[in-house]
Amino acid sequence: MLRVNLTFKTFIAVFSLLIISWKASGQKPPLSLWYRFPAKEWIEALPVGNGTLGAMVFGGTGTDRLQLNDITVWSGDPQPAADRKDAYKFLDTIRTAIRQERYKAAQELTARFMTSSAPYYSSYQTLGDIFLHYKDAVGAASSYRRWLDIEEAISGVAFDQSGTRYTRETFSSAPNSVLVHHIKATGHTPITVSILLHRKERSQTRFEAPNKLVMTGNTGATLDFEVQLAVVTDGIISGSGDSITVRNSRELTVYVTAGTSYILDYDKGFKGELPHEKVARQLQQAMGIGYNRLKARHVADYKAFFNRVRINLGAAADSLPTDERLKNYGDGKKDPGFAALFYQYGRYLLISSSRPGNLLPSNSQGLWGDGFDLPWKCDYKSNINYQMNYWPAEPTNLGELHEPMIRLTTALVAPGSKTAKAYFGPDTPGWYYGYTTNGWGWTSPGAALPWGVFAGGSGWACQHLWEHYAFGRDTNYLKKIYPVLKGAAEFYLATMITDNEGHLVPSPSTSPENNFITDSKQKGNVTEGATMEKAIIWDLFDNVAMAGTILHTDEAFRKQVTAARDNISPLRIGKEGQLEEWNRDWDLNTDDPHHRHVSHLFPLHPGHQVTVFKTPELADAAKKTLELRGDDGTGWSIAWKENFWARLRNGDHAHRLLSYQLRPTKQLKTIMADAGGTYPNLFDAHPPFQIDGNFGAVSGITEMLLQSQETYTTNDGTYAYVIDILPALPAAWPNGSVKGLRARGGFEVNINWSNGRLTSFSIRSANGEPCKIRTTVPVIFTESITKGVTTPGYYIYEIQAQKGKTYKAASSTMKNS
Fold first, then answer.
1. Which of 202, 301, 317, 424 could form a disulfide with 428 if both were Cys (CB 3.0 to 4.6 A apart)?
2. pTM, 2 dp
């Protein structure tokens, strides 16, 4: 028998050559989006990004376009005077009107005095465009393939024309802060191409011999930007103005670096140094490294994140192009692998738009946006999309990518302290912000109701600061962010009032973008104690109290915040069995029964106040609310409902909503109800595009397979987590596996199932903490495990885990555990 011994390096080299050959031949990579035609519209183009610098790749044959973005390119300027001066002086008048049930007057007063005093005009913007105009090649292109390999974060194009095979690859490197576009011709006709670097507003481009274009400009008085583009080729280069022409080339590489003067520093007005030197240095370094080494570094860096999670949900119809798979998806039973692709694509988008070094987090379009006044300003809406963007970060093993959001939230303390005093009194402690924030640290309320006066933004954002600890269990990190959590809690402690029943409530209070109708037919949107806001405050107080216990600090404050948490107005069940949205049983009076926001189910998800096992009556009420609201909605609304139904342990219903989301659409018009779907490039449609739907779907699928929000009290007075294995597995995924998911408490989990039944799993403890494990079938561990109390149809096992140890289990045929 012939033996062949290959070193690991040799194997990797051979494997890499096979992959390169595979792509060059126009075949699709193993885990990819792919198409048989170039993108005609932006929603067909494919995104690449390194967290900060991104592009949408169109893949045209005669003319190609790379639409560029930098995560810090914001129009406008900081607006420190947007807080309404002396607004707090009218607070008691508003609260009195609410208490007297004069809701029209309360709404008018709130709109007049509790909104911002300045227009909100800043928007995330495009950085510009690179256009490539190809010449000499004649005839129609054939054997065309365009792809995005999400295992390597490389977009590619391959086609035949004029007896020549043309291939292109595009990637955005995080290690070297450079966008790379590589072009190769194999055959009779060399490459002749004109490369144009352009931005329609406030910019100028110049050619610098021998091979460089430099574009400089600004978006206003605060932000300056610079883009540098250089070409390395075996051909002949010439240039002038805003373009470079390459002739008689067989291979060329375009290197692009960019930067801005932006810094995340409120005290310095967010304006730093001009980016020229940094951008020029990055370009020279990238050119010195060269295309092949840059690509290898990029792939290795990206895979260090992406490869942490592997998921198999069943057969994949990947012989079909992605747009056809989307059209054919239907109920998902014939192509369950498409759901896995959509899942990993969402992880790809997060890795590509939110690296640990980002100055700003992933926004409402991630990193990608074409235009100068993008939909909803493409900012960080605190009543859902800012948070939903980061729901997948921790459970899908991308915890470091949470850091830009945590950094921005922390940066809001200074402006948020000022806003708190303006609207709630000069002696108000702590900080808060309302319905949105942006690159300029906006913390003021919005300009109008019902969306602008939302007081839950800071509390909800702080949940993410806590969740980063809950999954990672780093007490040094917890010490650093504890003052931010405490400051948010101090604000709510100081500003809540006592209702007629003696409970604490926020006032004035709203439920995002919704209205109520009272039994006396008054229509309004301002009340006291709206469910979402009081649930957010409950969640914050609970987390702050636990943080104090874990850190053994601030005992007096801990007691204060715990007492306040326990006295917050309780969640209530209405006459139809629903969870009430307002402070009264008005839900059935609505003229919009299918409103896209179901915000008052926050305590079910992403909160942990309502669970199926601990609060079954409230869980049933949440289910009734979802039934009343219906399944359809905007893209992000459908995604949130996937998470709700998963938390209710109804996997089939959650999967039905995923099928709703994976409906093909090209709708670009803003539609606020029942128009959600997915664009050809798998961007989520609100419509138009909002990336939170993509990230919300990743979270929803994860919640079907693994949950860990439920807690129990440990002997030391803190709490540990219940890790729920396959809590909501849908029938459409009878066979599958997932590896590398994370659970709260510092655990990593692998799961296998067959015929709709758990077959085995393993759980690794990073920190050596206790946990309970819940399964739907009895299992046998390889280690001695404490068996807990079982509930009908569920089995409980308790582990006092050792640090770094993996615990394995397989299903048992025993009837009892």
1. 424
2. 0.95
